[in-house]
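Practice problem: predict the structure.
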Amino acid sequence: MAATTAPDTPAHTVDAFHRGRFWLVQPSRGGHRAGMDAMMLAAAVPSGFSGRLADFGAGAGAAALAVLSRCPSAQAVLVERSAEMAGFAAATLSHPGNAHLGNRASVLTADVTLTGRARTEAGLADKSFDFVIMNPPFNAVQDRSTPDALRRQAHVAEDGLFESWIRSAAAVVRPHGGLAVIARPEQLVAILDAIEGRFGDAELLCVHPRPDAAAIRIVVRAVLGARGKMSIRPPLALHGPSGNAPTERTEMISNGLASLFGD
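Answer:
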């Protein structure tokens, strides 16, 4: 299927997700390219979700469109600070393969770390969403960093990132709205500190490359204003004990045929 991206769109690829049920226009060099992290984050949203969703740090729009692909009554706002990546998100929504989703999605170029009136003026009004998903930059500054400025912005965490992103999520979500975050295991404490007093009924799911390997990702889901204790859900193993073939559950999640938490 040919893309109809603007002629000045930077070098890009057009990639099929959910077995061709939606397409992503994303940078071929530099910037952030979406993969399994975005699919797992999207799968944290319940399959019956029918409200308004904000994708914080949306990049080219993979996670938000994956939610729309699986939840036919949902709407989404792709919130992205980088003007260049927001341009890719707009190109994604304009792709002809996404015509069935485009009228349920929009792009907002905004910094989710803004507070108070500045956040509202940027287009993120209080209590205006039913669910927020986020795949924030979670590489530590001391980790090996790419020389590409756009990719570094998408991957390297700033001090206090989870506090500022989750604070904004708590402001823009309606009472009893949802939050889902994907991150590295070592960032669990920062996430739990940030949701304390804001979100409750938290659920933690660990993602392992294989059943006998340590987790490489965590997904935390919680509800605004809830007071229940955290529960630990059965883990997801991306591959079997040997080989690189994805497990059946991984295949289902990556193709939008199942939710991560079983709802």
